[in-house]
Specification:
CATH architecture of the largest domain: 3-Layer(aba) Sandwich
Protein name: Resolvase
Order of helices and strands: EHHEHEHEHHHH
Structural class: alpha/beta
Radius of gyration: 21 Å
Keywords: DNA recombination, DNA-binding
CATH topology of the largest domain: Rossmann fold
Strand order of the largest sheet: 2-1-3-4
Number of domains: 2
Helix content: 55-70%
CATH class of the largest domain: Alpha Beta
GO molecular function: DNA binding; DNA strand exchange activity
Oligomer: single chain
Distance between the termini: 65 Å
């Protein structure tokens, strides 16, 4: 008896930017869409629909998001985004979608399963909360010193961009990338892939982007990610 060929998996793409300026430029959306298409093609999935939003990731009622979910339910398709936070910034929303049977995947975490997605979403939300708390504390301290905050008073400071703030932003971005990649490394460890070199080969074979997004994984890159996470754990324990 000849077996019927299994139909290819269907996928629905979702892109999102936060501001009208980003949406009008199209650059952020185009880059996300290119990543989604490449990821779906690599998985052998058929991308049947693409939806987009210009809104905050905290807004679960945005029209593109809701339309994408409806299409996924209709076709039993997987919801694909360039990054997990393009779908939602709320960990409980992601968990509820997975509980409801919506299959979700992020192009920048090709090997992540449902459990890893839940863990990463929770970690990312906690990190955003900590950043918000630090920002509020800094503003309160500045206000206590008598510094006038907020508003456009018709002038621009003669000094250029704040180098300290820019460096802090880069560090926080690197930390977020390290969190995400540490989940990939933990998954490989649980699968029995031991050693930095072996994990680097596995990440290259699976097409997982490096922290910089270019080049190939090496044992040194793996070691740096693990070292960064160890330092973060020590810092968290001492805070």
């Amino acid at each position: 008896m000849r077996l019927r060929a299994q139909a290819p998996r269907l996928a629905v793409g979702l892109t999102r930017v936060s501001t009208a300026e980003q949406g009008q430029s199209g650059l952020g959306l185009e880059a996300q869409l290119a990543s989604i298409r490449a990821f779906a093609a690599a998985q052998g999935w058929t991308l049947v629909a693409e939806y987009s939003d210009v809104a905050s990731g905290k807004d679960d009622k945005r029209p593109g998001f809701q339309a994408a979910l409806a299409r996924c339910r209709q076709l039993d398709a997987v919801l694909v985004a360039a990054r997990l936070d393009r779908i939602t910034r709320r960990a409980h929303t992601l968990s509820q979608l997975l509980e409801d049977g919506i299959s979700i995947r992020a192009a920048d975490m090709p090997g992540a399963d449902d459990l890893m997605l839940r863990i990463y979403a929770a970690m990312a939300q906690k990190e955003r909360e900590l950043i918000s708390e630090r920002t509020k504390s800094a503003l309160a301290a500045a206000k206590a010193r008598g510094k006038v905050l907020g508003g456009d008073r018709g002038y621009r400071p003669p000094a250029g961009p704040n180098a300290t703030a820019a460096a802090q932003t880069r560090r926080e971005g690197a930390q977020r990338a390290a969190h995400r990649l540490s989940l990939e490394l933990e998954r490989l460890r649980l699968l029995g892939v031991q050693g930095h070199a072996a994990r680097a080969r596995a990440l290259n074979d699976q097409g997982v982007p490096t922290p910089r997004g270019t080049g190939a994984w090496t044992h040194t890159t793996v070691a740096r990610i693990l070292e960064r996470m160890a330092q973060a754990a020590v810092a968290a324990g001492g805070s």
